[in-house]
Amino acid sequence: MRLDKLLSVAGMTRTEAKRAVAAGRVQINGVPARDPGAHVKETDVLLDGRPVTPPGELYLMLNKPAGILTATKDARQPTVLSLLPEAFRKRSPGPVGRLDKDVTGLLFLTTDGQLAHRLISPRWAVEKRYRAEIEGAICQRDIEAFAQGLVLSDFVARPAKLFSLGEGLAEVLVTEGKFHQVKRMFAAIGHPVIRLERLEMAGIALDPSLAPGAYRELSDEEITHLYQTVQLERTQ
C-alpha cells in the first residue's frame, strides 16, 4: 500500500499525510520517510512513534432524501456519499442495494463488501418493508395477487406481503429488489406509486430521529444482527 494511502485510511487527508512526512513524523522501519508515494507494509510504519492502525469496517444508516442518487460518485448529480462528512467519504463506504432517485428512507452503507453482497443477494431473501402512497385503495384481490407472486413483463416476482393502510396508502414486504420492482408491482395491480419510502431492512427499522439526509453509525447490536441474518461470522 502507498504510504500516503495508508495514512489517509488511518484518518489523515492526503495533504495532511504529505505534511506529516515532510515534518519527519513518519518512520518506515525506524528510518524517517521521505516519499509519501512509497509502497510500504502497514506493520513497518510508525506515526509519531506509534503504529498506524487503519479503522475497522464502517456501518451506517442513512435516511435518504428524494433527489439524491444511490451511487458513490456522479459528475452532475449529488449522491448519497455527498451527505457524509469527509472522514467517512474517504473510507469509501458503498450503499447496500439501491433506492431510486425519488425514493426515500432507509439505506445502509458499509465498507464490508461481503456483508453488503449477501444482504442484497436473492439467495438470502432479506426482507425489506416499504410504505407507498398510491392511487386508489388496496383490496383483498390485490393482497392475494402479491401473495401469489405477480407476473411482470420480464420476471415473476416472489410472493410479497401487502397491507392496506386505507385510501391511497399501503405497506409491502418484499424479499428481492429488482429495478423499479416495488413501483412496477403496484402499477401491475392498477395502483401507480406516487411516493415510496423504505422503512425497514433485515429487521432493522429506520431510526425515527433521523431527518432526511441525516445518518448515524449502526449500533453494535444492529451490526451483529445483520451478520447473523446472512449467516456471516463477524470478525470485528
Automatic annotation (TrEMBL):
Gene3D superfamilies: Alpha-L RNA-binding motif, Pseudouridine synthase I, catalytic domain, N-terminal subdomain, RNA-binding S4 domain. SMART domains: S4. Pfam families: PseudoU_synth_2, S4. PROSITE patterns: S4. Keywords: Isomerase, RNA-binding. CDD domains: PseudoU_synth_RsuA (cd02553), S4 (cd00165). Coiled coil: none annotated. GO terms for molecular function: RNA binding; rRNA pseudouridine synthase activity. GO terms for biological process: enzyme-directed rRNA pseudouridine synthesis. InterPro entries: PsdUridine_s_RsuA/RluB/E/F_cat, PsdUridine_synth_cat_dom_sf, PsdUridine_synth_RsuA/RluA, PsdUridine_synth_RsuA/RluB/E/F, RsuA_PseudoU_synthase, S4_RNA-bd, S4_RNA-bd_sf, TruA/RsuA/RluB/E/F_N. This is rRNA pseudouridine synthase. It comes from Candidatus Pullichristensenella excrementigallinarum. The lineage of its organism: Bacteria, Bacillati, Bacillota, Clostridia, Candidatus Pullichristensenella.
